[in-house]
Amino acid sequence: MGCTSCGNKKEGIPNGCKSNGNCATGGCEKMSVFNWLNDIEPPAGHKPFDCIEVSFKNGRKDFFKTKGDLNVYTGDTIAVEASPGYDVGTVTLTGELVKHQMNRKGVNYNSKELKSVYRKASQSDLDKWKEGRGLEHETMHKARNMALDLGLRMKLGDVEFQGDKSKAIFYYTAEERVDFRELIKVMADSFKIRIEMRQIGSRQEAGRLGGIGSCGRELCCSTWLTDFRAVSTGAARYQQLSLNPEKLAGQCGKLKCCLNFELDQYMEALKSYPSTKTALETKEGKANHIKTDVFKRLMYYFISKDGKNSIVPLSVERVFEIIELNKKGEVPHKLTDFVDFVEKEAKPDYTNVVGQDELTRFDKVFKKNKKKQKSSNNRNANSSNRNKSRNKNFRNKRNNKNKSNKPKGE
């Protein structure tokens, strides 16, 4: 079973999901892993690894053992062992790469807690699974109302039904310890299923719910980011970012995870910069560092003289030069003498020759049209007046002529 856009080969093997994740849709599941060992043939006599990675709702993944006679492929929907009953998930990874993933996440292959795969999901399993998915939204809102009625200070963020509809996992966030034993009793009586409460953090909640970040792309925690590392304000300071909580915080209310993405490059680049705590001695006074532009390799220093404040940009090389002079006991006269002036390229002046960029370019046309219309109306009025006078004169002449042609006795 694969994507809707992928055709299936014989025996239900997906056509697109076996191509190392190169589906036209970008992958069948969130948090997908590129199988870079897929095209490498195992040695002769080497048995394939009998564990697979299975994905469930919102990127939740787990590892399961397969039976010897059961062949599963990436994209298959299978029924796996759960407690109690069984669950339904999608195979996201098979082969030797699963062993690397288990070692990376610290999962013991020989552990007795490692569950097994039952079978490939039948149509009845899929129908029950989809039916449970359809009940999740309504169940979550009912559970929220129950928590409000009991006065519990917790937020239910998501509900996940097990594949056989015998159990539901409720994910919640809370700032303090919550006694939800009464809530479990009420929900079990109402929904007639086994209830499991699982507390998650605000970052995990944002990853499960998803959304669009300030960069305009889908959240990293809901697409590819699997581990949540600690983010401190020091990461923002190294990158010369303003410590504004509204700009640095993500949708989870914590510092953005992307602050760590380029932190190593900034720290490596700042090793070649002088210490920002070192003040520059000049005859005008001390100059203290206030800002660094890592990309332009400029350091900005603040100096005050005679009540006038000024900010001077200096290149890194010039700063080292001044520090060496101060160590030798020499004090420069002015800090501006060390400013490197860069000649700017002369850009051609833009002149609005045609006048098409003016906002009022149509006003003159409208005024001319109004004048033309007014003059035409005047001409029409004058012409109609002339025609009226001509008709009147013609009628008068005709009447006078008729009077003159009548006999005198009449």
Question: What labels describe this entry?
Answer:
GMP Synthetase, Chain A, domain 3; four-stranded antiparallel beta sheet; alpha+beta; 31% helix; 4 domains; disordered N terminus; 410 residues
List the helices and strands and how they pair.
Layout: E1 51-55, E2 61-65, E3 77-81, E4 86-93, H1 97-105, E5 117-120, H2 123-149, E6 155-161, E7 167-173, H3 181-191, E8 194-199, H4 202-209, H5 233-238, H6 245-248, H7 263-269, E9 280-282, E10 285-293, E11 298-305, E12 308-315, H8 316-327, H9 363-405
Describe the protein's architecture and organization.
The chain is of the alpha+beta class and 410 residues long. The chain has 4 domains: 10-121, no CATH class; 128-200, K homology (KH) domain (GMP Synthetase, Chain A, domain 3, 2-Layer Sandwich), CATH 3.30.300; 207-269, no CATH class; 273-338, no CATH class. The protein contains 9 helices and 12 strands. Strand 7, helix 3 (181-191) and strand 8 form a beta-alpha-beta unit. The protein is flat and about 120 Å long.
Quick recap:
By secondary structure, the protein is α+β, with helices and mostly antiparallel strands. It is 31% helix and 18% strand.
